[in-house]
Amino acid sequence: MVLFAGHLSTNRRPLEKSSAPLCETLFDPRSCEHAASMGERQVPGAVRCGTIQEQEQEWERGSKGLEKGLKVSASLMEPPNDLNITAAALEKAADWSRDLLGRGKEVEDNALKACMEAAEAPCADWSCQLQDEILNLAYDRCGEVTGEYAKTFYLGTKLMTPEKQRAIWAIYVWCRRTDELVDGPNASRVTPKALERWDERLQSVFAGEPYDVLDAALSHTLSEFPISIQPFRDMVDGMRMDLVKSRYKNFDELYEYCYRVAGTVALMTVPVMGIDENFEGDKEKVYHAALSLGLANQLTNILRDVGEDVTRGRIYLPVDDLKRYGIQEEEVVKGLVDPATGKVDDRWKEFMKFQIARARDIFKESEKGINALHVDARWPVWSALVVYREILDAIEANDYDNFTKRAYVPKWRKTALLPYAYLQGLKGIDRSL
Ligand SMILES: CC(C)=CCC/C(C)=C/CC/C(C)=C/CC/C(C)=C/[C@@H]1[C@@H](COP(=O)(O)OP(=O)(O)O)[C@]1(C)CC/C=C(\C)CC/C=C(\C)CCC=C(C)C
């Protein structure tokens, strides 16, 4: 049985030549021959993704099945002369990043408009056949990955209708794989070229020509929900930015980064969740609320992970804010906790109070939009919001030590927050929106 047969430009070259784990079978011409020899219909130039059994075997082989499916970075890298091209390419990427700086809001607005236009247009209509069996397998895999890697968001999706839930899982997996390129174990070897390949691969997904089962789930999602490619491209650009940029001068610069890695997620998921048909206000405001939730989540994530990010050479905090609180970059690198006493520096505490207050304000902004979403999406989004926001309380409870401690919300507390989230969703559309 063939996974996916869609039309394809004839000059496609295999992107995943090296040690591609799950994807190996997808570009192996033998899988096409194998399929053909089994008497299956051969569409000229079609992507042949191997048989369902091959996909299953690939996935199950080894003890780290989930990871195998996720980690695409190795397969996107130039195998032999990688390091020779890196310096020049990195310089080019740095220029690109500089040119873009300060244009964060513009980039965001542009994507917002593209998403609103896409929402009014018909969904993709692939001239392809996607077997039910393989489709179910693809979505099951996405669900497994989401459940494994994103407990908070998975909990939210479990409250959605099955169609929306699986679509969000497919989006999650694409985002996770993208993030893994610059954040995963191979990150130091991922070049701008690898990101270009990932971008090409994204375009194929949006052309109905997926490369593997996880991509196939996203291609299918695009045929069910009116989603624009723009936020996906902006997220890949965010990863490009991450390759070359490790400091943020001010909040504007950080804002752009947050849009690219998290606001984009909001723009990707709103069309899946849908806006309530009784909402009579300006839809753009709903998208703005969604962007705020992405931003607030990402700021929270940054505040939680300061110590961890420093070990990767990155400080995602506005340098001018640090200066205002009398803190030098080098102090953040060393950590502002006295190792002997465990006491947190007072300047750091004050700085953190300011950052936490800002994140809370942005969460508040986003709240207005949630009840403008379709009724069945409100509980999931409220749940994700209230649970993620509690990470800020956990940072406070750790006395602002985010160098040696990782703030988290315990499972019992997440469960306890669910009824509150449910009640928030019952409140009806916020007329102030
Ligand atoms: C409930 C729901 C619809 C969830 C969306 C799930 C989804 C598709 C998540 C993708 C997350 C992801 C892997 C993004 C890649 C970049 C990144 C790492 C962003 C950070 C997420 C947290 O990831 P991480 O794995 O590091 O987290 P933990 O270690 O487990 O804490 C981010 C912080 C960004 C997350 C951003 C969102 C989920 C966007 C939220 C906005 C909406 C769902 C729109 C809501 C609509 C209105 C109108 C308010």
Automatic annotation (TrEMBL):
Catalysis performed (reactions): 2 (2E,6E,10E)-geranylgeranyl diphosphate = 15-cis-phytoene + 2 diphosphate
Keywords, alphabetical: Carotenoid biosynthesis, Transferase
Top-level EC class as recorded in UniProt: transferase
Annotated InterPro entries: Isoprenoid_synthase_dom_sf (IPR008949), Squ/phyt_synthse (IPR002060), Squalene/phytoene_synthase_CS (IPR019845), Trans_IPPS_bact-type (IPR044843), Trans_IPPS_HH (IPR033904)
Secretion signal, residue range per the UniProt entry: none
A UniProt-annotated Pfam family: SQS_PSY
SUPFAM superfamilies: Terpenoid synthases
Cellular component GO terms held in the UniProt record: plastid
One GO BP: carotenoid biosynthetic process
Presence of keyword Nucleotide-binding: no
GO molecular function per UniProt: 15-cis-phytoene synthase activity; geranylgeranyl diphosphate synthase activity; squalene synthase [NAD(P)H] activity
This enzyme's EC code(s): 2.5.1.32
Similarity comment: Belongs to the phytoene/squalene synthase family.
Name of the molecule in the record: 15-cis-phytoene synthase
Organism: Cymbomonas tetramitiformis
